Recover the amino acids of this structure.
C-alpha cells in the first residue's frame, strides 16, 4: 500500500464494547471533538496486546486512530482514567451502564458535543465516588437531555406562557414542557407534577453537581422525579432502557433482603 494512512488522536470514553471476529473488539466511544464513534480495536482480546487493558468499558483513554474504509481503527490506546470503582462494585457498575446506554441512545454518530463529553466524564467520576448514585443518575438525565436538544421547559406554562405557580401542574413528555393546571388538566398527553418534584427538577437543571450533590430527597419526591424523567426519556427513544430495568430489579432485590 503506497497511500499514507490518515490518523488522528483523541480522548475517548468507552460506552459499549463487543467482541468482534477472532480477537478484535468493536467499541462505541464518546469523544470531545467527534462525538460518538464506532471504532475497531484489533487484537484487543489477546492478553499480549498492548491495547487490551486500555479499552475497558467506561474508561477514558487517549487513542491514536487510523481512518479505515468502514470503521476507524484504534492503533494505540493509553488509559487516562480507568474509573476502577465502576468495575469493582455491582451497583456502581449498573449505574455506569445506565449512563453509557443513555448517552449512546441520545447521540448520533460523528456529531461534536464537547459539553456532553465533559459531563459524561464527570458523571462517571461521580458514580465512582458518590454515595447517592440515583441522584447522580437524575442529574445526568436532566443535563444529557438538555445537551442532546431535549431540554424540558420547567419555568413557564407551555400554553399560556404564565410563570408556573407552586401548585400541582402537569408535564407532557411528548411536548417536553410543563403546563399550568388550567391549560394542563384536560391534556391527555400530560401527567400530574407535584410542587416538590418541579422544584427538584428545576434545581437539578440550573445548578452544578457540587450544589446538587448536597440534596437529600424524600423517597416519594425522588420516585416522582425518576418516573417523570423516565417517561420523558422513553417517549423520545420509543423504547425501554435496558439498564434501567436492571437497576429496578437490583433495587427490589435489595429491599427484599
Ligand atoms: Zn397555562
Amino acid at each position: 500500500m503506497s497511500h499514507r494512512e490518515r490518523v488522528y488522536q483523541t480522548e475517548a470514553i468507552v460506552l459499549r464494547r463487543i467482541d468482534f471476529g477472532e480477537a478484535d473488539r468493536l467499541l462505541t466511544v464518546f469523544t470531545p471533538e467527534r462525538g460518538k464513534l464506532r471504532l475497531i480495536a484489533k487484537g484487543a482480546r489477546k492478553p499480549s496486546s498492548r491495547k487490551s487493558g486500555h479499552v475497558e468499558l467506561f474508561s477514558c483513554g487517549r487513542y491514536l486512530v487510523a481512518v479505515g474504509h468502514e470503521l476507524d481503527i484504534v492503533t494505540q490506546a493509553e488509559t487516562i482514567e480507568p474509573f476502577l470503582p465502576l468495575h469493582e462494585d455491582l451497583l456502581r457498575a449498573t449505574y455506569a451502564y445506565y449512563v453509557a446506554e443513555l448517552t449512546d441512545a441520545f447521540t448520533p454518530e460523528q456529531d461534536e458535543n464537547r459539553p456532553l463529553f465533559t459531563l459524561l466524564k464527570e458523571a462517571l467520576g461521580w458514580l465512582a465516588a458518590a454515595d447517592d448514585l440515583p441522584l447522580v443518575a437524575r442529574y445526568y438525565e436532566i443535563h444529557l437531555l438538555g445537551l442532546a436538544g431535549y431540554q424540558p421547559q420547567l419555568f413557564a406554562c407551555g400554553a399560556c406562557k404564565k410563570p408556573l405557580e407552586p401548585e400541582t401542574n402537569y408535564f407532557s413528555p411528548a411536548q417536553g414542557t410543563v403546563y399550568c393546571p388550567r391549560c394542563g388538566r384536560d391534556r391527555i398527553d400530560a401527567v400530574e407534577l407535584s410542587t416538590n418534584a418541579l422544584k427538584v427538577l428545576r434545581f437539578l437543571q440550573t445548578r452544578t453537581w457540587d450544589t446538587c450533590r448536597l440534596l437529600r430527597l424524600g423517597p416519594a419526591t425522588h420516585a416522582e422525579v425518576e418516573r417523570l424523567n423516565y417517561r420523558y426519556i422513553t417517549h423520545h427513544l420509543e423504547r425501554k432502557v435496558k439498564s434501567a430495568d436492571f437497576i429496578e430489579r437490583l433495587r427490589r432485590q435489595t429491599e427484599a433482603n
